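Friendly challenge for the regulars: who can give me the structure tokens for this chain first? No prize, just bragging rights.
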Amino acid sequence: MAPSRAQVLTPLILTHLLLALPLPTLANPNPNPNLPFVINTWSGPFTAATDAAFDSLLHPAPNSSTPALDALVHGCAACERAGCDGTVGAGGSPDEACETTLDAMVMDGTTMNSGAVAGLRRIRDAVAVARAVLEHTRHSLLVGDLATAFAVAMGFGPEGDLGTAESRARCETWRAGGCQGNYWVGVEPDPGRFCGPYRPVVVAVENLRRGMTPTEAAEDAVRRILRKYPKISSGIVVVNNKGEHGGAGSGWTFSYSFRGGTMAATKVVNIPPLEDDLDHDGYDSPSEI
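First reply, four minutes later:
Bragging rights claimed.
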């Protein structure tokens, strides 16, 4: 189930100022007849955002130095309030915990600075909070409960659960259907058929179960990584339930240390990098790594 998007439209807003020209250009005797201008990547109910943004450009706030950014926020906020197609704002698509959280991002076309929030909880005004991130921090993105704490400090909310009876019912229906679809991979139980809780399928551990030695298991795991990320620097240590161990790495000389049993001192093991000289035949495809 996809997390809720506080704003899934991407307006590009142009004014007579083009966000970069000085105010005297408004006196241009031959203004572009296409300006002001708002473009929105979505239609249908999202046209409410286009209209709200355009109205903001026609009636800018007195003495505002950021009319385009103002209009973008007004447009996005219109969809947050209206819910548009049911995926935006409070009551939008819930997450796996059946909670609606919000995401939003804005960018200043003059400075190219951006501000964003993700997984924002208990705050309805996600796009306004994203603007606050842009204007009042050196961050680009705040996430989760820390984003909520920032929003509260900026004077927003907090409110209760942003879900509704309808959004929670959608989540329960999704769970009843085996949590299909979802974004889990490389875990068990099979996310293509079952709900979680999930746990990772660790390649090296599975290799031990198949009878490999710890060194063989480590080298196989690193080779799988190399087939997908041939330039990566990596290192892994594998220990079985007998205390036997081995390691493998790539991109550097990897080392690890151990001490056990009656050993009088710690021992260091240096592991030279594996060479990516595989012909790839007989191995899993990258999608199976």
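The first strand starts at residue 12 and ends at 14. The CA atoms of residues 53 and 136 lie 23 Å apart. Your move, everyone else.
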